Amino acid sequence: MPITTIGTFSVQRLQILDEKGNVDKALEPKLSNDILKKIYYQMISSRAFDDKCINLQRQGKIGTYAPVRGHEAVQIGTAFALESKDWLFTTYRDSAVLMARGLPASQLIQYWAGNEAGNDTSSERNNFPIAIAVGTQLSHAVGAGYAFKLRGERCATAVLFGDGATSEGDSHDAFNFAGVLKTPTVFICENNQFAISVPRKCQTAANTIVQKSIAYGIKGIQVDGNDALAVYKAVKDALENARAGNGPTLIECETFRMGQHTTSDDPTRYMPKELLEEWKKRDPIIRFEGYLKSKGILNDNEIKNLKEMAEREIKNAVEKGLTEMQILPSDIFKYTFAEMPKCIEKQMREMEETIKLKNG
Question: What is the pTM of this model?
């Protein structure tokens, strides 16, 4: 029998703003000037929070921090596409989307300073606790989405993860289950080109990450991840598709980590300087500024004032969070089980008594 072709496959790529902020009017989302200004303010607030946290880590006031710089369009575009009823699953580099979705900077800085109260991201909002283990949050998002489907609830789950997570078995399990069970899950890959020091080309022989969606029978699209409007549109369309019962979508957002993996990292040892300089020309904030100025929404003086306002608000919020923070040794026992086992409770009491004796 002759060899036959089963089918041909291709992936689409979405870009609405070019590097200078020029817009494709045919694809431009219908967002009010007020919403566009809010998107911009959240982007510059994220960068102000980044700068503040890096300084605090250098001063020894927090242990470590994973910068967002370069990811602002992915995270803020996602935040504005979500509805309040949707559930969000994040990783350690997602401070921007959490703040844009209502988590106070004062609480988020407590998380980075080691206060467990800072990880209570779900209070008054549907944010799952931050995942540190790479890739685990994908399965959580699929499981929650399946629960919503079984209950007949018209809401979706959205999960953010890096390109490095697609090299973990958890991601393949999640894609497969989501495809088979048609869960209302939107997978948003923040492809920043490096998994710590490992470049994307050393992680997979595939030309793109989004083409992996084909193998699992789910929708997929690649997006310019430094284009906030493209991310917003892609995520919004995918969420609406999920809520309508049409299953999951994988969105690959091509962006770049314009800094360290964390504050303990030295990217100059593996990241070519020329590559970083090239991506700096695609800075998502500068691109969005150009777009807003071209539409007459903001001018240079207004942008300057907004940046100063964002820096003040972040500075005050961070100081408030650190001032109000209280770290109790017993916290290490309290956040693993819904109901603390007797053996763990006994250990906690013994530790508390030991501390009392030590302090006299």
Answer: 0.93
